[in-house]
Amino acid sequence: MKDSLRIRVATPGDAAAVHLLIRGLAEYEGEQDVVKVTPEVLRDQLALWQPPFECLLAEREGRPLGLALYYPYYSTWQGRPGIHLAVLFVVEEERRLGVGMALLGRLAAIAVERECGSLEFAALNSNDTAAAFYGRLGATATSDSTLYRITDEALDSLATTESWA
Question: Which residues, including other chains, have CB under 8 Å from residue 65's CB and lie 6 or more apart?
């Protein structure tokens, strides 16, 4: 069964599958109502000359099983690029069968090919399964920073503040 697993780079034609998996992640995290992105938006973004993200798809016999959605960043300390894994998701019936490991293995190979200094990602503090999985891979949790996020009205308000001009 594992031999038929295929990991490949998502294309604009995969937007519906990517969306389906994003919705699956939202359901897993109990956040179904938060997903705003549509397959059409994903397709258009994947078609851009410089898309805002890249995505690996795991599939078996054409059936999407999981995804790793990521984007590059730059480490000022290392003076090297890195990859930030925004989403790693595997459908429930395929968990513990090597799909997540295959996705992360391919992403690590991409990071090495691009001479990245690191591959970073975050997991919800409540997601013990993810913490255990990442720990088995040799990942270490950092405690030296906290992720902050500005969205919606707060983002609009900050953008119109002229104190930065």
Answer: 5, 58, 59, 90, 91, 94, 99
Count the neighbouring beta carbons within 10 Å of the beta carbon of residue 133.
19
Q: How many angstroms separate the most distant Cα atoms in the chain? A: 59
Terminal-to-terminal C-alpha distance of the chain: 59
Residues in the chain, total: 165
Collect the ranges in the chain with pLDDT lower than 50: 1
Domains and CATH numbers, the chain: 2-164 (3.40.630.30)
CA dist., res. 26 & res. 32, Å (int): 5
Catalytic residues: 134
- Global pTM? 0.82
